[in-house]
Amino acid sequence: MLLRITFLSALLACFLLSGFALESKKKRPGETDKEKKLSSLIRAKKDFKVGRGTLNTFREVTKDAKVRREKKIEALTRNKDKETLSSKRGTVPRKDVGCASIGGICQRSSYICQGRYLKDKCTGPETHQCCLPAGAWSVLCDGYHNNRVRACDVFGCGGFNSRRDGDGVRKGVDVVCDDYGVVNAPFSGTLGGPVAGVQYDGVILSNSEHCVKIFNIRPYRYTGPVSQGESLGYLLPLQDRFSGITSHLELQMCDHSDPTPYI
Fold this sequence. Notes:
Blueprint: H1 2-89, H2 97-101, E1 105-108, E2 116-118, E3 128-132, E4 163-164, E5 168-169, E6 173-176, E7 182-184, E8 189-194, E9 202-206, E10 211-215, E11 217-219, E12 223-226, E13 231-235, E14 248-253
Antiparallel strand pairs: 1-3, 2-3, 4-5, 6-14, 7-13, 8-9, 8-12, 9-10, 10-14, 11-13
């Protein structure tokens, strides 16, 4: 009887242990779900941190681009300020010196010029031309952009107070022209008749500011009013008398002063 009771007790214990084992197996999937949820939360947190890192990187790149753009704008502003300061100080670009040396200003030809415009004296497009003040004389000879003083040749030099062959020092300036080229009035005024006592033909032109004798030309007329740029006559051929000489007309101020600053 005692043995039977012991056997039943052992059998009951085994049954209880089997039940506990099955119960623990049922609980394990639940615990696994919690672990999965915990793992998901951890991954989400990591992803959030990665996202924040990417956002911070984007912000840093944007900030760097903004800083570079601001530095570029600052550099451009500095350069513009330097150019403005240079213009205020009276400095001119290298290729505009030719205009500045004759008292002109390089500007757009659409702007009003109190004097006259000269081409090929300024940098930039053709509309960027040299404006000479009103006191300057216009071009005397057709086919030329400016009044060019005769250089030295076998017969002498054309500058003021230069020595001419056979004539010594003369108080005039030779301006280069082509034989038979049309000669225009350098300023508005009145023709005062032929130049007396000269070997070659010429005419006197004067106004309230200037009086000049123009030699080596055949005038269309010797008297009457003329406007600046109006045709006065044509250049006499010097090559017939002086082969190899630079063809030119001669300007002499009536008071024997130097006409170079006006031409």
